[in-house]
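Margin note: ligand = zinc ion.
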Amino acid sequence: MIYRIVCAWCGKDIGEKEFPGSNNTDEIITHSICEGCKANTLAEIELLKKGDEYER
Ligand SMILES: [Zn+2]
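Resulting structure:
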């Protein structure tokens, strides 16, 4: 059984994981976040935090 890991944000193919012990060769798509989107998301959170500080 193969798990294909795809970025939930941009759809980028991050990689795949094979789980031995199963004869099922169907691909299962699982979602994660790629390095680029992780950095973008963290940057956005930091901006939001800063925005909150400016409003006070
Ligand atoms: Zn991504």
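Strands lie at 2-7, 13-18, 27-32.
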